[in-house]
Amino acid sequence: MEKYLVVYNPSSGKEMGQQKMFQIAKNLLTDEDISMTFIATKKKGDAIEAAKHGCSEGYDMIIACGGDGTINEAVNGIMQSPSKTKLAILPTGTINDFATYMRIPSSIKEFTKMLKNKKTNMVDVGKVNDQYFINVVSGGAFTNIPHEVPSDTKTIFGKYAYYFQAALEIPNQIYKSYNLKVESEGKTLNLEALVFVVSNTPSTGGFKKMTPDAKFNDGLFDVVIFEKTNPLIMLEIFTGMASGDHVKHPKVHYFKTSEISIDSDDELTIDIDGEYGFKTPVNISIINEGIELLVP
């Protein structure tokens, strides 16, 4: 008999996520020879400890049910463990960039089917200082937006709540800049930048082609840095983001690396998988195929 550990955030997705997971469990327990244990998170760090428990107790799979924060904590718990249990993700957050790119289903029927099929892929995991991440590290203008939108607003309006907040923030943030020193393999940049993104997949902040050539298992990050420029040129750059053409603009730096360090003249708070993280300086590295992920 296989053992599955479900780690869920009861406040994510207006409790719809946990109801989905209970129904999925009912379907599985009817048809499959498995047992399932549920752990609800109550505070920051709970999902890390739950995932570590799942690894140490020999569970066959950890199912993380929640938004970006819950998924990130589950990844950290697994990566901190000597024995690394397989991970499944039931996304219940607002944007779910990583899950969307990996085509992870959120419907009861399709998620149950994925669990029964048991197909997995090895995926890269990033590490910033001493914290792991599955999708993205970013810093600079606009990276505060996910943290400014109230939970109730996200529940009602979904991803459009972020777009509305971004429209409000543009007049104030378009003129911001940060003096960055960026060092990676064979490359050193000293520049005045608006924002930077270090990503494991193309999908970041609701933009499906922010880093258009990124691959989840190539052992490399895709890095995009937007230089400070005037608002008209920035608008020109932004209009290319839907197609991924923004990376061809001379005011945009785009490259691949397995390791990168970033510092700034002024202390800059870094966003890690949609959650506030460290302040600069930061050292970011990649663990090639660090986690085994359940996929459709």
Q: Can you describe this structure?
A:
With about 300 residues, the chain is an alpha+beta fold. It folds into two domains: about 1-120, Rossmann fold; about 135-290, Sandwich (Tumour Suppressor Smad4). It is built from nine helices and 15 strands. Strands 5, 6, 7, 8, 9, 10, 11, 12, 13, 14 and 15 form an eleven-stranded antiparallel β-sheet that branches. Strands 2-1-3-4 form a four-stranded parallel β-sheet, with helices on both faces. The longest helix has 16 residues, at about 15-30. The chain is elongated and about 60 Å long. It starts with a strand and ends with a strand.
Keywords for this structure?
magnesium; Rossmann fold; single chain; 296 residues; Lipid_Phosphate_FormReg; four-stranded parallel sheet; transferase; Tumour Suppressor Smad4
Cα shape: elongated
The helix fraction, in percent, is 25-40%
Q: DSSP helix count?
A: 9
Annotated CATH topology of the largest domain: Tumour Suppressor Smad4
Number of distinct beta strands: 15
The whole-angstrom Rg is 19 Å
Separation, N- and C-terminal Cα atoms: 22 Å
Structural class: alpha+beta
